Amino acid sequence: MIKSGGMVLVRQIGYALVPMIARGVMLGADQPVILHMLDIEFAAEALKGVKMELIDAAFPLLKGVVATTDVVEACTGVNVAVMVGGFPRKEGMERKDVMTKNVSIYKAQASALEAHAAPNCKVLVVANPANTNALILKEFAPSIPEKNISCLTRLDHNRALGQISERLGVQVSDVKNAIIWGNHSSSQYPDVNHATVKTPSGEKPVRELVQDDEWLNGEFIATVQQRGAAIIKARKLSSALSAASSACDHIRDWVLGTAEGTFVSMGVYSDGSYGVPAGLIYSFPVTCSGGEWTIVQGLPIDEFSRKKMDATAQELSEEKALAYSCLA
């Protein structure tokens, strides 16, 4: 029995996510789940309503629901924690103000996971700044292995695949091995240099099929980087459905494995691969097997990519320094 818990915002991402988990989208169609949903006291009544809906939906895989405002109750015994709660930046707030709020939130939740989660609990941080929130969580949950703490860049990865499929008029399932390097922010680097498309005559490089380096090195990158802002402009709300779906993709591949010859993007603890400073949570191309991720090694990196990868690493280093100053 897998207990899947985490900070669930009743509106938006959490509301989109919980039925996907209950239906088996995250952990497989034969894996029973107990959902632990955590929210703030202000949202307790709405959270109760979500629990009622989950019961009414009669999901065959859903073996129990815990809806609580108590972080200890929410974290007790969980095998998978999806952290979607955080403090958003509001008008007039400085970056340090936002970081201070999130450091406080993730310090408390890390402590609860450290003390009460199941051994070998896997943690996915979704709330922004996702990479640095994950780093703070790691600091305050030292018994959770660093390999078990990650952040969501699969949403950006999927956005990159979607843009390529739209451009070429192909099924998105035929596009693979795009990479998101770095931060889940506008400094991220969507890289298609190793991406391919399945065609009737075999797999072909994306660059060969698109035949427009100016678009791939310019508008494509900017579109993926700014996609979240574009969705807010269109919906007047942030990405929820796509974020929830990508969180499911992230955990499913992590737990069940990636397909042979396919790599995906995950924000993971850097070991210095590709010249990225060790000690950052940075998005790399990874493969997954047996519940473990492994950074794909040996990919050639051109000068254009190197500069983009270094720029997003620099931003993450600055975020890390800001977060640690908030701790002090």
Structural write-up:
This protein is α/β, with parallel strands linked by helices and 328 residues long. The protein has 2 domains: 2-151, Rossmann fold; 154-319, Alpha-Beta Complex (L-2-Hydroxyisocaproate Dehydrogenase, Chain A, domain 2). Helices cover 44% and strands 20% of the residues. The chain contains 12 helices and 14 strands. It has helices spanning 13-23, 44-57, 71-75, 95-116, 130-140, 154-168, 206-210, 213-217, 219-225, 227-235, 241-256, 303-327; strands at residues 2-7, 33-38, 62-68, 80-83, 122-125, 149-151, 175-176, 179-181, 189-191, 196-199, 202-205, 264-269, 281-289, 292-295. It has a 6-stranded parallel β-sheet with strand order 3-2-1-4-5-6. Strands 7-10-11 form a 3-stranded antiparallel β-sheet. A hairpin with a 7-residue loop joins strand 8 (179-181) and strand 9 (189-191). Helix 1 crosses helix 11, helix 4 (95-116) packs across helix 12 and helix 5 crosses helix 12. The relative contact order is 0.13. Mean pLDDT is 93; it is low at 4-10.
Short description:
The chain has 328 residues and is of the alpha/beta class.
List keywords for this structure.
328 residues; alpha/beta; Rossmann fold; L-2-Hydroxyisocaproate Dehydrogenase, Chain A, domain 2; 2 domains; six-stranded parallel beta sheet; three-stranded antiparallel beta sheet; 12 helices; 20% strand; globular
